[in-house]
Amino acid sequence: NNAIDSDDSLAGQDIIVTAGGTKEPIDPVRYIGNRSSGKMGIALAKSAANKGGNVTLITTVKNAELSSNIKVVQVDSAEEMLTELQARFAKTNVLVMAAAISDFKPVHVSDQKIKKNDNQETYTIELTKNPDILKTVAKDKKEQFVVGFAAETQNLLANAEKKLISKNADVILANDVSQSDAGFNVDTNRITLLSKSSDPQKWELMTKQQVADKFWDYYVALKK
Ligand code: CTP
Ligand code: CA
């Protein structure tokens, strides 16, 4: 129940959360996407707003049920998400990158719907790397507290530790997606919190809403 959890521990904090899988255009009617539901990011945005934060949600998810005190910026592609984030990052206190950014996008985007033809049984789409949004904005961050996720099926701690360093993040929420009860399109996650300032914290299996509340409680305690 949202009303019970509400407090003002994030009052005065400008918070940006990104959510959902990006859609990388192929032609006017097609895109490359992924199975992210956006649930983790939406839970983080709602939880922060319940705690009095000034929340902007940059999201690919359409028609999500959100409280009216969350500012919503709708995007599709990683490029659009980067642009909207760069316009706001300088004056934010916290960024949480919960979005599932497509690592690659089509090199060419066709103006017209691509037609299949009778003498071609295969079709190849050449892909190029998307910008690393988190790395790009956190590279020369100042006071901003930056949080990334790491979805891993193996070597969770080592891979997440690398992301903590290479992306210049303050925290990585490493998500063990090796089992079907955590990660994409389910309501629960298995999180280990990594930070530069303390040892990894392994959290039990919990709902995405519980992960969100626990993360903001961690942040509030850290900043006290
Ligand atoms: N991320 C990003 N821009 C990208 C790719 C990822 O900002 N182009 C962010 C994600 O939102 C997440 C973090 O980086 O917060 C880690 O994403 P993840 O996919 O786990 O890691 P990658 O760096 O993409 O590496 P890989 O997929 O190869 O494990
Ligand atoms: Ca990736």
TrEMBL record:
<comment type="pathway">
    <text>Cofactor biosynthesis; coenzyme A biosynthesis; CoA from (R)-pantothenate: step 3/5.</text>
</comment>
<keyword id="KW-0511">Multifunctional enzyme</keyword>
<comment type="pathway">
    <text>Cofactor biosynthesis; coenzyme A biosynthesis; CoA from (R)-pantothenate: step 2/5.</text>
</comment>
<keyword id="KW-0456">Lyase</keyword>
<protein>
    <recommendedName>
        <fullName>Coenzyme A biosynthesis bifunctional protein CoaBC</fullName>
        <ecNumber>4.1.1.36</ecNumber>
        <ecNumber>6.3.2.5</ecNumber>
    </recommendedName>
</protein>
<dbReference type="GO" id="GO:0004632">
    <property type="term" value="F:phosphopantothenate--cysteine ligase activity"/>
</dbReference>
<feature type="binding site">
    <location>
        <position position="113"/>
    </location>
    <ligand>
        <name>CTP</name>
    </ligand>
</feature>
<feature type="binding site">
    <location>
        <begin position="131"/>
        <end position="134"/>
    </location>
    <ligand>
        <name>CTP</name>
    </ligand>
</feature>
<feature type="binding site">
    <location>
        <position position="149"/>
    </location>
    <ligand>
        <name>CTP</name>
    </ligand>
</feature>
<comment type="function">
    <text>Catalyzes two sequential steps in the biosynthesis of coenzyme A. In the first step cysteine is conjugated to 4'-phosphopantothenate to form 4-phosphopantothenoylcysteine. In the second step the latter compound is decarboxylated to form 4'-phosphopantotheine.</text>
</comment>
<comment type="function">
    <text>Catalyzes two steps in the biosynthesis of coenzyme A. In the first step cysteine is conjugated to 4'-phosphopantothenate to form 4-phosphopantothenoylcysteine, in the latter compound is decarboxylated to form 4'-phosphopantotheine.</text>
</comment>
<keyword id="KW-0210">Decarboxylase</keyword>
<keyword id="KW-0288">FMN</keyword>
<feature type="binding site">
    <location>
        <position position="167"/>
    </location>
    <ligand>
        <name>CTP</name>
    </ligand>
</feature>
<feature type="binding site">
    <location>
        <position position="103"/>
    </location>
    <ligand>
        <name>CTP</name>
    </ligand>
</feature>
<comment type="similarity">
    <text>In the C-terminal section; belongs to the PPC synthetase family.</text>
</comment>
<keyword id="KW-0436">Ligase</keyword>
<keyword id="KW-0285">Flavoprotein</keyword>
<keyword id="KW-0460">Magnesium</keyword>
<comment type="similarity">
    <text>In the N-terminal section; belongs to the HFCD (homo-oligomeric flavin containing Cys decarboxylase) superfamily.</text>
</comment>
<feature type="binding site">
    <location>
        <position position="163"/>
    </location>
    <ligand>
        <name>CTP</name>
    </ligand>
</feature>
<dbReference type="GO" id="GO:0004633">
    <property type="term" value="F:phosphopantothenoylcysteine decarboxylase activity"/>
</dbReference>
<feature type="domain" description="DNA/pantothenate metabolism flavoprotein C-terminal">
    <location>
        <begin position="10"/>
        <end position="218"/>
    </location>
</feature>
<feature type="region of interest" description="Phosphopantothenate--cysteine ligase">
    <location>
        <begin position="15"/>
        <end position="224"/>
    </location>
</feature>
<keyword id="KW-0479">Metal-binding</keyword>
